[in-house]
Amino acid sequence: MNMHAARAAFGFDSLKAILGIPVLAIRWDDAIALLNRLIAERRFTKVSFLNAHNANIAHTDPVFAEALDDFLILPDGIGVDLAAKLLYGAPFPDNLNGTDFVPAFLQASKRPLTVGLLGATRVNAEAASVKLAALAVQHNFVVIHDGYFSPAQEPEIIDRIAKLRPDMLLVAMGVPRQELWIERHIDERHCTLPIAVGALLDFLSGSVPRAPLWMRRLRLEWLFRLAVEPGRLWRRYVVGNPLFLWRVVKQKWARGAEAVADAPGEFR
Questions:
Q1: Domain residue extents for the chain
Q2: PANTHER family of this UniProt entry (predicted)?
Q3: 3-state secondary structure of 25
Q4: How far apart are CA 202 and CA 124, in angstroms?
């Protein structure tokens, strides 16, 4: 089920298009209820999150943008909030970044689930599995494979997922590889909710530190990550964030120009 089908099925009609990508404007508790309902009804739905970084990638990569069109997209971070405020006059109701939302969803879901983990290094995936099992004891967490596999290994990995058929499959391979991999290889035969989770398993394992809570509350986690990994992330944040906002401003101007063009002429 894609974003549009989910909207039709569940009555969530509030979408905000950010650089052409429709993002669900939904409260935290409503998002948890939605995912629980999708699992209960076994409605296959690909899930991802939009932040400034992957919006920039989608803007220049039509294959990735097309893949995202078949995902249910949740808002992640201050960048898309600023974009929503600029384009629609209000930010998203809640920041549903996967690093916080996915563990919270698993804690809140009372019905026992099978959750597959795919991606990161083997050590980090195993450590994340232990952390999740302690966090949400009602669920069964299974490490499928690390994220470093060859095309020749793919059939065996996909077959293992199909045999397990988890309720959720957490795919942690980085953007855009994780979304493209889900799009190309995973369907309703394999799981119910495949979720592209980025660095979640690395964060859960403790190998990549999270920002202090006060920085997260101030929406400055990106600044903390930049300070920790400047060599890897400077282009994403120092170049990418202003570029993203410039593209959003251009989207706003284009919408304004279209509105003027579509306005009926005045009779004088």
A1: 3-258
A2: PTHR34136, UDP-N-ACETYL-D-MANNOSAMINURONIC ACID TRANSFERASE
A3: coil
A4: 6
The strand pairing partners of 50, in sequence order, are 75
Q: Are strands 21-24 and 15-18 parallel, antiparallel or unpaired?
A: antiparallel
Pairing, β 21-24 against β 168-172:
unpaired
pLDDT in tens, 77-116: 999 999 999 999 999 999 999 999 999 999 999 999 999 9
Q: Which two tokens stand for residue 159?
A: 């077959």
- DSSP track, 180-198: HHHHHH--TTT-SEEEE-T
- Which residue, among 162, 157, 182, has the nearest Cα to 47 in the 3D structure? 182
Q: How far apart are CA 58 and CA 52, in angstroms?
A: 10
Check if the beta carbon of residue 12 is closer than 8 Å to that of residue 26.
yes
Percentage, residues of the chain above pLDDT 70: 91
When mean pLDDT is compared across 5-14, 63-72, 123-132, the lowest value belongs to 5-14
Average pLDDT along the chain = 92
Amino acid of residue 211: A
Distance, CA of 63 to CA of 86 (rounded, Å): 27
Residue 206, CA distances (Å) to 135, 200, 203, 211, 262 in order: 14, 10, 5, 12, 53
Terminal Cα distance for the chain, rounded: 51
- Judged against a pLDDT cut of 70, whether residue 139 lies above it is answered with yes
Q: What span, in angstroms and rounded, lies between the C-alpha atoms of 37 and 173?
A: 26
- How many other β-carbons are positioned within 10 Å of the β-carbon of residue 56? 20
Residues in the chain: 268
